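Curious: why these numbers?
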Amino acid sequence: MAPDEIAKTTFACWLLNEARVAGYDTDHDETRASILVIAAVALSNGLDTKATASVAEMLGVTRAEVTAAYVCEMRQTVLAALLDHPDLAEADARLDEIARTG
């Protein structure tokens, strides 16, 4: 996904809003870049427990809220990518990985 596509995702918009609520300067370039990186990782590979906890702590939300904010969109993104390249072995491995993160 290109940066402009990532910025338009539901999860990136959620991160931006939560960062604003938490008191971050969301007009600052570094804040916006951090949001794009977090969103890109979450939507392509999911966030591990440590990353989820860090994002939750920074935003003042629960880990469950962070996971709920991205997991459906991540699954849709991963599924769309798999459908573009339908190698069944790869699809099976990725679906198992998704099942473990959800």
Remarks:
- The CA atoms of residues 43 and 74 lie 4 Å apart.
